[in-house]
Amino acid sequence: ENYSYFLRKFDEYLSGYLDVFAYCLLPNHFHFLARVREMEKDLAGLQNLQGLSPTNRNPVSQAFSNFLNAYSKALNKQQNRTGSLFQRNLKRRLIDDQGYLIRIIYYIHLNPVHHRMRRQFEDYPWSSYHCFLAQRPTILKRNEVLSWFSGKDEFIGYHKSALAHLQELERYFIEDD
């Protein structure tokens, strides 16, 4: 339920600012691949989102802060705890290469395998992988992402070949230990 709540809060606070391409939620961290929308033309419409005004220097950073604070407060109340929930600041990385962009998507989806939470990434329910295969509404830019892979079949095939490559690398490193 906490993961569902996390995604609802993400949508509430950030969907007006970001185009989301992939995500994965894990017990101790999360990944989102997103593009900040052009703010100049949208700023007038964004001023009413979550109490932000057009005078804020960085409304996206403020929206992230509000999102993480709202989630932390709710979880602290639920768990009867106090204090910070997140240990580190957000990490951001500029992606300016199409090949790297595609690799980031399968990296995000394969994270549960990489962290040995699942043997098959398809078994993990808290990544966006399944959203690309379903027809239900989503905040993801599904059609755009699938076009980068030349369709759904290639999207699936790319992930499976990436998983095989990851498993080969892990066997290599485990055998050397």
Structure, briefly:
The protein has seven helices and two strands.
Describe what this molecule looks like in 3D:
With 177 residues, this protein is mainly alpha-helical. A two-stranded antiparallel ribbon has the order 1-2. The protein has seven helices and two strands, in the order αββαααααα. The mean pLDDT is 84. The longest helix is centred in the last third of the chain and has 25 residues. Helix 1 runs antiparallel to helix 3 and helix 4 crosses helix 7.
How does the SSE layout of this entry go?
Layout: H1 2-14, E1 18-25, E2 30-36, H2 39-46, H3 59-79, H4 98-114, H5 129-133, H6 142-148, H7 152-176
Antiparallel strand pairs: 1-2
Labels describing this entry:
single chain; 177 residues; mainly alpha; two-stranded antiparallel ribbon; 7 helices; 54% helix
CA radius of gyration: 18 Å
* Continuous helix count: 7
Average pLDDT metric:
84
- Fraction in helix: 40-55%
Please state how the strands of the largest beta sheet are arranged side by side: 1-2
Secondary structure: number of strands:
2
Oligomer: single chain
Low-confidence runs of at least 5 consecutive residues: none
What is the percentage of strand-forming residues?
A: 5-15%
Instruction: Describe the sheet with the most strands.
Output: 2 strands, antiparallel
What are the secondary-structure elements, in order, as H or E? HEEHHHHHH
